[in-house]
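note to self — DONT lose this again. spent like an hour looking for the file last time. sequence + predicted structure for the chain T wanted, 90 res
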Amino acid sequence: MARTVHCVLLGKDAEGLDYAPYPGPLGQRIYENVSKEAWQRWLSHQTMLINEYRLTPIEPEARRFLEAEMEKFFFTGGAERPKEYVPPTR
């Protein structure tokens, strides 16, 4: 049976992650409070940030930036798209 969490992003009970997706206390907090669906939303948002800001995730400064954005995305509601971002047309 799948693990259920009360997802902080979705505001409802949903299927939880199988493991902590990020190291350290932030990863554990995400594991305990974020659903699989919300994590997928973060991955899409993170990809957009990496592309728009031309980040190299292996660089410490980029990792710190992404970690801060992850914290905002899930726990403080302050994550936003870059001003220059134009969603792709389909």
